[in-house]
Each structure stands twice: as structure tokens, then as C-alpha cells.
Amino acid sequence: MIILLKPIFFFLCFFFYTPFSVSSTPPTEISALKSFKSSIKPSSIPPYSCIGSWVFSSDPCSNPKTIHFLCGLTCDDSNRVVSITLDSVGYSGTLTPLVSQLSQLVVLDLGQNSFYGTIPPSISSLSLLQTISFRFNSFSGSIPSSIGQLKSLQDLDFSGNSLSGQLPNTLFLLSRLTRLDLSFNKFSGQLPKLPLNLLELAIKGNSLSGLITKFSFTGLTQLETVELSSNSFSGVLQSWFFQLPSLQQINLSNNSLTGVEIWKPSQGYNELVAVDLGFNKIEGYLSVNFTNYPVLASLSLRYNRLRGPIPLEYCKKSSLRRLFLDGNYLSGSPPAGFFTSGGKYSTLSGSLGDNCLQGCPRKSQLCLPTQKPMSMCKQIYGGKKPRKF
Prior knowledge:
The chain has helices at residues 2-17, 27-38, 214-217, 313-316, 374-380; strands at 73-75, 81-85, 92-93, 107-109, 114-117, 131-133, 138-141, 155-157, 162-166, 179-181, 186-189, 200-202, 207-210, 225-227, 232-237, 249-251, 256-260, 274-276, 283-285, 298-300, 305-308, 322-324, 329-332, 349-351, 356-357.
């Protein structure tokens, strides 16, 4: 009996303690990773790079890693691929549709490489994706409308590509999205309705146009940052925009806005820190209501078509540290408190230059560049010399 047990005992020891050379990553995922690598031009894969270490003689999720699969992907405890995060070495190629076979993928980051072609609609089946970053590549075509199926997505960054067409209305369906960056592409048309939980919105450097409507922003109670500069938005920026309850930073410079309505903030609507509306076509008088935002520190309305005096309240605004009003048709004498030596406003930076102001001290940096010729100012003010107020 004892003699019979010995072989069984040693067999069991061998079974439990001898490593097997079988694959631990599911075959469908290995197939997807192989397709991922084969879609990249070999000449763009340096031997020292992450993709250069993807050698399929070893299992992608095996441990310990020695010379293969050193970086670029992460697996969970169940040997499923949960993250692809590439190094920025200039990989050039397309994104394989078979990436959809990585069904447990949470992060897909191809940023700062040279991927091109269209974004495969198949990525919309990756229901666990929380982060997609294709920033600064060369992807083209439109955003697949099926992207609205990614219910777990929190961070979407397609900035710095050549994507075009209209923004899909299905963006609104991304209910967990907190950060959206589509800057520096070729998108056109109007803003669609935006996801309700956004904290950061950046779509600067595109060709978006039309009015900025309340429809797009309704319900965005957590929105803190809006970056929509260098587009073609037009019309009047209405007062509801400044009443978004969590709004802190606004950049709508380099558009074609013709007016801005701003009221005194309602109770609780007081977190606005920085506003940039420079290089638009905003007409009318400089509103005093900007000064009613208690923590406003930076305001730019440079190179618009504003006229009339600078309200004294701007001089009394102790939180204000940057004020750019240059390139307008402001008239009268600027508040003397701006130039009080050693006063609480002596730290104010910016410019009041290139206006129709009188008595702006030439020695002050705030008064640079020099004011417009009086002949130009008279044309704007109906042939009369602007009033000193």
C-alpha cells in the first residue's frame, strides 16, 4: 500500500508545483493583440519600444515578465487585458477593428503617435472603457455615432487629429463622461447637447459655428471649464451662460460673437475666476456686472468693438489681477486707482492700450500700446471727439 502511494504523492507534487507552458491570456485577446501590432508599420516600431517587446512566443499576461511584453499593456488577476497605454515613439499605422475583442479593456491610450485612418466603430462594443486618448495622432473621418454606447466612459480625448464632420448627438448619452477634449480638429456645425456630468469641455481650434445655445448646456451643474476658442461662434453670449453654477474658467476668444449679456450673479453663482472673450466682434459698453463675481481674477475683452468709459468698479475690484481691454474704442480717462503707486492695484497686469482713452499715463505698462489716433476715434464716435466723462 505504501509503495503504491509514493508515485501518486510525487505525481501530485509535480502537478501542483511544476509550471505549465499553456497560455493564460484568452486566445481571442491574443489574436486581437497580434492584429493590433500587425496594423502598425514595422519601420515605426523601435526595438526598445513597448510594442517592440510584444513577442508572441510568450503569453502577454504571464508573470514574471522578462524580455517580452515589458510595457504597453496591463492585465488583471484573471489574465484579461485591461489597459493599452503606448509610449510616444511615433508608431504609425491604423487601429485594428479587432480591438473590440479586448472585452475587459478599461484604458485605451495611443496618445502622441502617428496613427491614421478612421476610428473603428467596433470600439463602441468595449462597454468597460473608462478612458480613450487618441490625442495628437492623425486620425481622420468622423466620430462614430455608436460612441454613445460607451456608458462607462469618463475621459475622452481626440484632440490634435484631423477628425471632421459634425459632432454626434449621441455624445449626450455618455452619462459618466467628466472630461471631453476634441480640440484642434476640423469639426463643423453646431454644438450638440452635452453630457450632463461634464467637468471640463474643450473643443478649441475647430470650425464650429452658430449660436451658443442653452439647449447644449442645460443640466450641466458640475461644469467648471469651457474652452471653445478659435471657432466661428456668432451672436450674443447670453446671461444664462454665466449662471452655470460651477463655472470657473471660460475661453471663447477668437470667435465672431457680437455681444455679451451678463447679469449680477445669483446667490451661489460666484465661482467664476477667468474669462477670455478677446478677439471677437463684441459691441456696446463694458459691463460693470463682471465685477460682481467675487473671485474674478482674469478678464480679457481685448480687440473687440467696445466703447464708452471703463467703469470705476473695475478699479475697486481687489481680486482682479489681469485685465486686458486693449484694441477697443474705450474713451474717457481710465480710473486713476489703476496707476496708484504702491496701492492694492499696483500688481494689476494687462493692457488698456490701443483705445481712445485720454490721460492714460505713458509710463504705465497698462497703457501700452499707445492709443488710437484721434481721427480714427472720431469716426467711431460719429465725427465727434470722444467725451472725457
